[in-house]
Amino acid sequence: APESAPPPEVSVVTVEAESVPHVIEVPGRLQAIRTAEVRARVDGIVERRLYTEGSDVRSGQGLFAIDPRPLRAQVSAAQATLARAEATASNAQQDVTRYEGLVGKQAISQQEYDAAIARLRTAQADVEQARAQVETARLNLSYATVTSPISGRAGRAAVTEGALVSAGQGTLLTRVEQLDPIFVNFSQSNAELLAVRRALEARRGGGSSGGVQVQLVLEDGTVYDRTGNLDFLDLSIDATTGTAALRAEI
Description:
By secondary structure, this protein is an alpha+beta fold. The protein has three helices and eleven strands; from the N terminus they run ββββααββββαβββ. The strands form two sheets. Strands 1, 3, 6, 8, 9, 10 and 11 form a seven-stranded antiparallel beta sheet that branches. A four-stranded antiparallel beta sheet has the order 5-4-2-7, with no helix packed on it. The longest helix is centred in the middle third of the chain and has 36 residues.
């Protein structure tokens, strides 16, 4: 009799529940987290550039030097005005001191005494105004060295040595961009956005987008070695494209 066939071999698979990552790939654009426009705050001639274009600069580092000689002259003129105002005020104070004893003896009229007090107050106001002018002149002199308002990477210079810059027109000198951390802007369709929101609510019991990790893939296909998080999700949908704007920080 023919031998019976052996029992067939089967494989056994144990089914287990596990989390499956929900990965969505979208194109995005990098954006500096902070951008500062460096502009002239005084009128003058640019003497020299103090930084290397495209280099990293610190907050407060000098970027341009404007000819300070006219500004120093303004400081000297303001200080001379202050000295003259202080001398006038000192003389007016001496008049009031002398008139205080004379008005009690009726050697001078009350009107003359009141006029002396008025001159003293006017002289004191002139002193305060002159001091303010000195402070303004010194502040303008400090603006002769144009500094970076933030730390970041300085761009190409918009002016060259010998260029006339104007504070009234706000002449642009250069831009400084802070690139660490950096923003990644992208958009998501309405349907996929709702799916992402439902998944987040199911995982965290109803929360914001703070726990969504973002991995950056460069144009040549290499993966950036640091991950970021989704930090902004626009509340409105663009009516023309049907997408919402999102932003990640890396």
